[in-house]
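Q: We require from you a single protein entry containing the residue sequence and its fold in token form, and nothing else.
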Amino acid sequence: MKDIVRGWRHIPQRYNLIGSKCSNCGEVNFPKRVICPECRRKGKLEDIKLSGKGKIHTYSVIHTPSDDFKILSPYIVAIIELEEGAKITSQIVDCGEDDVEIGDEVEMVFRKIKAEGEEGVISYGYKFKLSK
């Protein structure tokens, strides 16, 4: 039950990329912060909806996944620099490992993250795909 409540509480972050922008220094972060890690000034952060578009900063191909991800093997995990400047770690979907290069443009998509319990409650969230 606790996981279900936590899941509902995080829906805005799962279905929208909501970050924070410091009105003092302009730093954009994801996920939202309560203190700016750049200038350390409290109370000057505002919510910002991120575009979901960016470029691959770096990536790794996972060939030996944990049991939960064996069905996906191999899969690609990347650090993506969003247009607004924040960096986010996410899975790259709908392509093979030979299709991905550093600097490739990507865009956010919604995909199944996992299914839980006997009822098969499905959690969705963001992943990224190539914009080519």
The helical segments are 2-9, 11-15. The chain is about 10% helix and 45% strand. The chain has a mean pLDDT of 85.
